Amino acid sequence: MIDNYNGKVLVITGGANGIGRALALGCAKRGADVLIADIHGDEAEAVAGEIREMGRRAVAVQADVSLSEECQKIFDRTMEEFGRCDILINDAGVSNGADILDIKEQDIKWVTEVNVYAHWFMMQRFIPQMRSQGTHCQILNVCSIAGLITLGSAPVYFSTKHAAVALSECVYKSLKASGADIDVSVFCPGFVQTEMHLTDRHRPQRFAVPEGDPYYTSEKYQKFIEFNKQILDNGAPLEPTVEKVFASLAKKQFYILTHENYDELLKQQGIYQANRTEPVDPSLLKK
Ligand SMILES: NC(=O)c1ccc[n+]([C@@H]2O[C@H](COP(=O)([O-])OP(=O)(O)OC[C@H]3O[C@@H](n4cnc5c(N)ncnc54)[C@H](O)[C@@H]3O)[C@@H](O)[C@H]2O)c1
């Protein structure tokens, strides 16, 4: 795992806000140079400015990571600016709380393409580069506790995060088997204090809310946003949570879990699966 960030090059998606921004600043504080890719170019540039003030190099790239060609753009810019990448963090993610019978097809596609496809597109480009460098590299995929357990809600979020965790596990195993000097970790937090309830503002144009569509202004849809805000506000504080990520990376952990109240649910999930019984009861979740 990366324990010395000095002079290392970090490429991070979703680095303009929330967890991604805190991870980008945390790496820069430890001496890394940073390329921040985000769908909001101006917000990514603001974070790049903060990093330059810390005395590190930083570049912002406006990109929609759900598109393969945009991930190629991020890769090309990284090579142009830095000629290498030592740490890749796939952080960009979006959510939707609609139930299976309510959710719009475009939202299934949007959340899946950002939360899962982007991890594929980025790793497919950066792993060969990391291999060719012959230096020790790190990939950190920001997933969620929703990638390890299920509750009875937000099926698109839970299913995409499960897919992203599975992808990380496969890549971790295949890189280890091939002897590549690239570590992979997955960060699976519970709720963290960010503005993720405003996720709809990160929609690419092709998934924009159709003008006048009553579904998106319905009480049910708005209630989800309000509910999400409440649980995010009551989540773990951002900075200490991100510091725990750096501590876990230093301990060479693949699974980075920062919210202990899910531990019992995680354990029971494994037991229920091994016993081939019903999925674990979410009421085991400690408040
Ligand atoms: N906040 C939490 O409670 C929580 C819990 C578990 C997991 N996570 C995960 O952590 C990650 C970051 O979440 P956050 O809370 O910081 O959210 P956030 O909404 O504050 O930040 C997400 C960032 O991703 C960017 N982004 C979204 N779609 C993009 C796209 N198509 N292309 C490029 N950039 C895009 C946004 O512009 C934003 O800067 C996500 O993957 C999320 O699923 C968050």
UniProtKB/TrEMBL annotation:
PANTHER family reported for this sequence: PKSB (PTHR24322), RETINOL DEHYDROGENASE 10 (PTHR24322:SF736)
Lineage of the organism: Bacteria, Bacillati, Bacillota, Clostridia, Eubacteriales
InterPro entries xref list: NAD(P)-bd_dom_sf (IPR036291), SDR_fam (IPR002347)
Family: Belongs to the short-chain dehydrogenases/reductases (SDR) family.
Full protein name: SDR family NAD(P)-dependent oxidoreductase
Swiss-Prot/TrEMBL keywords: Oxidoreductase
Pfam families referenced in this protein's UniProt entry, alphabetically: adh_short (PF00106)
Residue intervals passing through the bilayer: none
